[in-house]
Design a protein that fits this description.
The chain is mostly helical. The protein is 65% helix and 5% strand.
Length: 675
């Protein structure tokens, strides 16, 4: 497929006069105007992403009534694919579409996906996720690469530019949870259930992102041309022989390093090949022996095969260029450990904020639930300019901190971040709530419920719980005690009232209700009438997952239901201060600022020109692996106590920090004076 420069930018490339007018001086000051176009484009795209992410797990738990294992499974598939598809999107942009077309296609697909999230049916929900995943694959790697193309090689402004770009991202990420969270709590038929309003707001943000890019694309092109990088953002039609002839780059004429660093560069491609065999084989064996589901074979196998592809790519790169490229993949390993912990913010930490953390009163306003998702972005906005000035100031004085050292600081900071969460979880777990209960229902095994935090004392006839009893744990405790015949009636009711409306109400009659039954639904849930004598309900709307869960819970034995619901309400006294979360987010954010913007810049400096977008996609894939592994661990939430859960990330991050400390000198040699 041939795509000319004029096709990529409708008004054609800038004239030589335009290009020369934008050419930076030998001692450039400030940043190109195109940076701020990309800043605003990415800001609103991130508003859409983080607004939706702030609601996603809570929507699955509260509205769709998933258990944590199921919600984490959806979360890990969505977020891992969101960060995996940029690998393919970067490759397609490099070879066929060019950066501009890929960004526009991605923005359009994501806008469609966000608006589809505003609709309730579950098939539409999953379709929306597919659009969001595909769109992000085209958008994310290419806009980051475009930022790097605004600057010449060696331009000292580059690291500062990526930090400014990253700060813009986080303005959107700060506004998103607050806006979408407020809509969730204040809109909709039932208080706290306005999720689709929040999803709709995320769609508006994506449309704004697209409009800004379309308006500002000419300025971006002028600045890219002024930096001498215009030919690098437009795919050129070449036959394979010509492509091979033009592939070699200056760094491939420079000898590779020796010593331990050189050994790493030589061995690393073969290590990737070995993993491409061992990892799939291990998961296939576990699936065949019933230790894993077959769906859990897919992503590890995909990751392993991509690793083999990258090993082959590394072998095609020569000498110092391979050394530099190897650094990207080595640091990739530690970045996975960092993001595996950090990205718990959207899953386990989001659940912790919603249920286990008390609203934090700050006088003029309070922070609650998904509002805590804005803390990370707030801290970035506060500290990113300071770190940008610090990196630039140190560079001017010849004291620039190596990239690997910044990564090391990030690993120690994320370790401390989850150390704070362990301390907060220990305080929450220390509170014990008690309610009277004459006897446990037949067949109930408390040790299998709520991570084993229930207890029963026969001598005092008391049911106890350590920490907070979350709503999903209430559902999980009630459901096993509900009569199967009653459950069958609820399923029949759901089908019968599916198409009910105010114009066409549907009446459903229950039979054989459990002793002491109380109908739980109200007129706000589509009920126009409940007849106690005939046990008939008239519905003017379908049965939502929330309403269905309330009906199910009402079928549990009255004494057990009353004990569990009372325990859940009283256990809120175990909620801990939001300061634990804020401290955790502060430490994690400082780590992120040492890792993420610096990492984006590192890829643009170390990657060979012909693999620029591809390697940016690989860098973003570190988040895909981390999201999948972290989400798999998230499936254990509610099955192990929070202190043990958070401790997993303390240990994994600390081990990574120690290994990275050992590798500081070899990585410095492999980077060949690139800092």
């Amino acid at each position: 497929m041939s795509t000319s420069t004029a096709q990529q930018f409708p008004s054609g490339p800038p004239s030589s006069a335009e290009a020369s007018s934008s050419t930076p001086s030998e001692a450039p000051k400030g940043h190109p105007k195109g940076l701020y176009v990309l800043f605003a484009t990415e800001m609103w795209e991130r508003f859409s992403y983080y607004g939706m992410r702030a609601l996603l797990v809570l929507y699955l738990l509260n509205y769709l009534q998933f258990q944590p294992a199921d919600s984490s499974s959806v979360f890990k598939w969505y977020t891992s694919l969101v960060y995996l598809t940029p690998l393919l999107g970067g490759f397609i942009a490099d070879r066929f579409l060019g950066l501009r077309s890929a960004i526009i296609i991605g923005a359009v697909l994501m806008a469609i996906g966000h608006f589809l999230m505003a609709f309730e049916p579950l098939p539409i929900f999953y379709t929306a996720l597919v659009f969001l995943i595909a769109g992000n694959g085209f958008f994310k790697p290419n806009i980051s690469t475009l930022v790097g193309k605004l600057y010449k090689q060696g331009d000292p402004r580059r690291d500062g530019a990526f930090t400014i770009f990253y700060m813009g991202i986080n303005i959107g990420a700060f506004l998103a949870p607050l806006t979408c969270g407020w809509l969730r709590r204040n809109m909709g038929p039932i208080p706290g259930m306005g999720y689709h309003w929040g999803f709709g707001a995320a769609g508006v943000g994506m449309v704004l992102s697209l409009i800004i890019f379309l308006i500002g694309q000419k300025q971006v092109l002028r600045d890219v041309a002024a930096a001498g990088n215009l030919n690098e953002i437009v795919p050129q039609k070449k036959d394979p022989a010509a492509l091979q002839a033009s592939a070699e780059e200056p760094d491939e004429q420079v000898p590779s390093t020796g010593g331990f660093g050189g050994a790493i560069a030589k061995v690393f491609p073969w290590l990737l090949f070995a993993l491409a065999v061992v990892v799939p084989a291990s998961f296939f064996y576990q699936a065949a022996t019933g230790q894993e589901s077959w769906t859990n074979v897919i992503m590890p196998t995909v990751f392993a095969l991509i690793g083999a592809w990258m090993g082959w790519t590394l072998l095609s790169i020569k000498n110092a260029a391979r050394d530099k490229s190897t650094v990207i993949f080595v640091i990739f390993t530690f970045v996975v450990l960092f993001w595996m912990a950090f990205e718990q913010a959207g899953n386990a930490l989001n659940i912790w904020a919603a249920y286990n953390t008390a609203a934090l009163d700050l006088g003029l306003f309070s922070i609650e639930g998904e509002d805590y998702q804005a803390a990370n972005a707030f801290f970035i906005i506060a500290f990113a300019p300071l770190l940008a000035m610090m990196w630039t100031g140190l560079a001017r004085r010849g004291m620039e901190i190596p990239t690997a050292a910044k990564m090391l600081a990030a690993m120690f900071l994320i370790t401390a971040s989850f150390g704070a969460m362990v301390a907060g979880a220990a305080a929450e777990n220390a509170t014990v709530t008690r309610v009277p209960l004459a006897a446990l229902p037949e067949g109930i095994q408390l040790e299998t419920l709520n991570a084993g935090r229930f207890g029963y004392e026969p001598s005092s006839q008391e049911l106890t719980v350590r920490g907070v009893l979350a709503p999903f744990a209430v559902t999980n405790a009630l459901r096993p005690t509900v009569d199967k015949a009653y459950m069958a009636q609820i399923e029949a009711m759901e089908v019968a009232v599916k198409n009910a409306s105010p114009e066409r109400p549907v009446t459903f009659q229950f039979t054989g209700l459990p002793p002491g039954y109380t109908f739980p639904l109200s007129d706000k849930q589509g009920v126009s009438g409940w007849n106690e004598e005939s046990r008939a309900v008239t519905m003017v709307g379908g049965l939502s997952p929330v309403s269905k869960a309330q009906l199910v819970g009402s079928g549990a034995p009255p004494a057990w239901r009353q004990a569990i619901t009372s325990l859940a309400e009283q256990s809120k006294a175990a909620q801990v201060s939001g300061l634990w979360l804020l401290l955790s987010f502060l430490l994690a954010t400082l780590g992120e600022l040492c890792l993420s913007p610096v990492g984006l810049s590192m890829v643009t400096k170390l990657a060979p020109t012909r693999f620029a977008s591809l390697f940016m996609g690989v860098w973003l894939m570190s988040n895909a692996v981390a999201q999948y592994v972290g989400g798999s661990l998230g499936e254990k939430w509610g099955q192990i106590v929070p202190t043990s859960y958070f401790a997993i990330f303390v240990y994994s991050s600390l081990v990574g920090a120690v290994v990275l400390l050992i590798l500081q000198a070899p990585l410095k040699r492999l980077m060949h004076n690139v800092r």
